[in-house]
Amino acid sequence: MSAATFEQHWVSRRAFLGGRQAPKFRRILPPGATDDGLLACSGCGSCLEQCPTHIISLVEDLPTLNFSLGECTFCGECAEACPEQVFHGKSSRRFPHVALITDSCRAQNPIECQSCRDACPEQAIHFRPQAGGPFLPVLDEGSCNGCGACISVCPVTAIKVRDLAQGAAHA
User: Which of 27, 74, 101, 136 has the highest local Cβ count within 10 Å?
Assistant: First the structure.
C-alpha cells in the first residue's frame, strides 16, 4: 500500500473504536484542471515538478493539491508544464471552495492564536473581540479564494475546505 493510499484510508484508533469511518478522500484539483481533463492525465508528474510551492502530489496517478504543505499561488506553472489536455483554458484566481474554520480552532478553545489571519494573502480572516477571552476568527467568504494558505499554518489543523456549492456548514 502506498503512503498516499494509506493516508487516505487511515483512521485513528479512537475513531475506529468509536465506530466512526475514515473521512472520504477529497481530491482538490490544481487551478484550471477539470474532472473531464483528468481523463486525459497520464500521471507523468510534470505538474508537480513545476509547482513552486510543492503542494501537488499524485494520488492514484492523478494530480491533487495538499494544502497542509502550503498554498496555491495561482501561478499557472502546473498547467504550462502539462503535456496533456488536463487543464482547460485560463484558470480563475479562485477555487470552487473556501476555508472552513472548525470548532477545534485554538481561539475558540480559549487559547490566543491568529496564525491563519497572518498567513491569508487575501486578508479574508479577521478576528472579532470577545469579552473575557481571545479574539474569535471570522471568515469573509467573499474575499476567500480557497488558496489554502491558512491551512498549512494552523497549529491544530482546525481549518478545512468547504465547497461553495454546499452552502454554509459547521464542522
Answer: 101
Rounded Cα distance, 7 and 99, in Å: 21
Instruction: Decide: 129 and 135 in contact? Cβ < 8 Å.
Output: yes
Structural domain range at position 124:
97-166
C-alpha pair distances (Å), 49 with each of 3, 85, 87, 124:
19, 17, 16, 30
What pLDDT sits at residue 19? Answer: 65
Phi, psi (degrees; rounded to nearest 5) at 43: 75, 25
- Burial category of 161 from C-beta neighbours within 10 Å (exposed 0-12, middle 13-18, buried 19 and up): middle
Residue 160 inside a domain? The answer is yes
Here the cell at position 123 is: 486578508
C-beta of residue 13 within 8 angstroms of C-beta of residue 68: no
Q: Which three cell numbers stand for residue 36?
A: 473531464
Going by C-alpha positions, the residue among 78, 77, 101 that lies closest to residue 153 is 101
Same domain, yes or no: 129 and 72: no
Last residue within a domain, chosen from 54, 81, 108: 81
